[in-house]
Amino acid sequence: MPKASPFLSLILLLLITIYIAHGAAGDAVGGDPWQEPEVAQQPAVVLAGEWQLLHQNTGVSAMHMQLLPGDYVLMFDRTDSGPSNISLDALSPCAAAATTALAGGGGAVDCTAHSVLLDLRSNALRPYPLATNPWCSSAALLPNGTLLQTGGFSNGDRIARLFSPSTGWVDLPSFLAVRRWYATDILLADGRVLILGGRRQFNFEFFPHDDAPPQPTLFPFLEETTDMDAEDNLYPFLHLLPDATVFVFANDRAVVFDPYNRAPLRRLPAIPGGVPRNYPSSGSSVLLPLRPDSPSHAEVLVCGGAPRGAYRLALRNGTFAPADRTCGRIAPTDANPVWVMEEMPLPRAMGDMVLLPTGDVLIVNGAAAGTAGWELGREPVTYPVLYKPDMQLGARFEVLAASTIPRMYHSSATLDTLGRVLVGGSNPHVGYVFDNVTYPTELSLEAFLPPYFDARLDGVRPRLVAAPAEVGYGEAAAVRFEVPGGAVSGGPEEVRVAAVAPAFATHSFGMNQRVVSLAVGTVAQLAAGLYEAQVAAPPSPSVAPPGYYLWFVLHAGVPSSAAWVRMRPLGAAT
């Protein structure tokens, strides 16, 4: 199919924008909360991308999602929303407890699972018992591949948990110095995890602890950025910068923070417009890909959110304010950072931003009106948008093919090993509700295939054959791949390798996701269609913290499936 003309693409974007804006305005003063949501008419032009349904019912609504080494995806929900739709194993301890309770005339015991593990290779689901409540919690993948998961609600608010497919969940009782609910975790260059914020917690701590008993360190910036009526600074956006400092964004402001000396280094300008970007206004943010030709330069992108006061309007008056459509981009490593503002084709709150191996950003899920919170969002935005950071300002956005499933509050999205984006969750209710509501609890799991899955690109699509299982900082590594056509299109300069750190996705933020482009040296042909590229591993743990990455080969801009490669911690034995 010939590529659509720029004029036709512009007309399409205008039509979609007019539809969304009209829908948001029409629902801005309440309306019937039980009416069926309007569904946009399919545009005349076929949009890029494709949706696949992987599971109609995973058993749990994926409030939290994490890709794990070995090609597993962990999805879990809160434990206090009532029974889920998937039972624990009949031999689990819960089953015995339920039998004992019934025999003794006691109340019912919940023997359903609130976490499931998806095996990407077989598409099979396995339930796991979850003892404490991880509602609105945070997490980071440790350098050894174990998931550290922290906080939550009620009996889980001071718990640290460890998860691996072989052990399941292991609780570390009372590990946290304070209660953590809506906090953010970030893996640091030295392999520790910084745990920052949470509701009414203007402080941070580390995993593992460096003092006993653990003591939190005050972080006044979080108190300064708290709105009295809605907070608007929960789940702060944290990004590790290539100089080992941390970018912290809360509400509409940012600082650069030195986690080792435990102090802010400098304040950055407030993002123009005054729109809060953190929960419950719930915009999203990513660290744009780091490049080998400028290893000390980093840029942060922040998109969407809800206007100040939107939470109060929706909660008290049933008025659902239109979501914001702006993005701000800033280079916090510059001497004098400034925000460069852009506009998305569609307004969006509660969207998820997912870094792709191409270096582009997929923006998916969310609503065009209202805010995060129980029943407080309207006008689902089912069209993903692709952001291309290397294009010129004004030409960076592309609207992609729509899903048929609204993904509202408590949705999640993450990149998988195949280069797909897994999309799940959506539950704007206190419990699981499937009938007589505008947006039912959603248990399905979809995969969105970005435009690079177009079959017309199969002739240049590389297949990764071999990559190192482990590599040290700055080391040379060989990556072998095949090209279907037999010859590298356009020469060796058309070959790139990207290392992608998998995200912990929840509440519109992918914690710890990052893309590091690797320096490619020679590309040698070993046989017909078989090539070996010599690449340089990331130069330091501040560019790529130790742990597991997805290495993708890109040929002519088209990525392969990925191999898992572990970045060896400094000082570790080879």
TrEMBL record:
Keywords: Signal. It comes from the Eukaryota. SUPFAM superfamilies: E set domains, Galactose oxidase, central domain. Residues 1-23 form the signal peptide. Residues 461-567 form the Galactose oxidase-like Early set domain. InterPro entries: Gal_Oxase/kelch_b-propeller, Gal_Oxidase_central_sf, Glyoxal_oxidase_N, GO-like_E_set, Ig-like_fold, Ig_E-set. The keyword DNA-binding does not apply. Residues 63-452 form the Glyoxal oxidase N-terminal domain. Gene3D superfamilies: Galactose oxidase/kelch, beta-propeller, Immunoglobulins. Pfam families: Glyoxal_oxid_N (PF07250), GO-like_E_set (PF09118). This is Galactose oxidase-like Early set domain-containing protein. It comes from Oryza meridionalis.
